Amino acid sequence: MSENMSALPINGPMSESLLGILEILPNPSIGSDACPRRTKVELDLILLAIEAIESGSSEQILELAKELNLDEIVKNRIVLWRMRSTNPMRRAHTRRILTIREAKALSAIGCRLASRLAVPIRQLLLSQQQLSVKQIPPEYNFRLSEYLDRFRAHFRSRMNPRRAKVSIYQDDDKLNELAVSLLSKLLFCTGTLGTQRLWMSLFDGEVK
To answer: Which DSSP category does 140 fall into?
Structure first.
């Protein structure tokens, strides 16, 4: 897929400047500045999972936008809400587009937050794997159960149950599966070139 994206070199460490972050992530060849549906959904759910791992993460998103000099794009809480509400699964879904520039900013912020949470993310995944092998319900691990409870609560309070893509997550087991799959995606975001790896994955099957 990378052959279909107008890539710039990504070998060096990511610049903390706005220009550096926007340039280091290649522009996808999708024929539009508007992100496709799957990209909008994935970015919002990744941030939702981060919020379920650590309370107060929504405030950290805005703080990190300033730290990474991305506050020209993610200007305040209202702008952030509007960007995330482009996810068509949301109750407050708007028809506003999510631009490639905005998606790059959210990707960079999400990956930086994931890197800061790398240890608890690994611990949650390890706990889930160990419980699964022993066929023990997640409720028997406090931290994993807490994460799943929070994720389900966040998801159900923010997503529209009338949407077909949301209705499949009515029971707890399905939502737990989604929550665990997002932990794996967050782990994918950590480490060297995590932002670039996530960015490329957001457009799999979308480039022309």
So the answer is: G
The CA–CA distances, whole Å, from 81 to 6, 90, 129, 166, 207 equal: 29, 11, 34, 19, 27
Each residue of 27-69: pLDDT tens digit?
Answer: 888 878 899 999 999 999 999 999 999 887 778 899 999 998 8
In whole angstroms, what is the distance from residue 146 CA to residue 93 CA?
A: 27
Nearest to 99 by CA among 109, 110, 86: 86
Are the C-beta atoms of 104 and 65 separated by less than 8 Å?
no
> Which residue type, as a one-letter code, is found at position 53?
I
Q: What is the pLDDT of residues 111-158, one digit of tens each?
A: 999 999 999 999 999 999 999 999 999 999 999 999 999 999 999 999
30 touches 203 (CB < 8 A): yes
3-state DSSP call for residue 6?
strand
Give the whole-angstrom CA distance, residue 202 versus residue 185.
Answer: 11
Closest CA to 194 of 128, 129, 116, 127: 116
Query: DSSP class of residue 208?
Result: -
> How far is the C-alpha of 197 from the C-alpha of 27, rounded, in Å?
14
Give SS3 for 28: strand
Length of the chain: 208
Q: What is the distance between the terminal CA atoms of the chain, rounded to a whole angstrom? A: 9
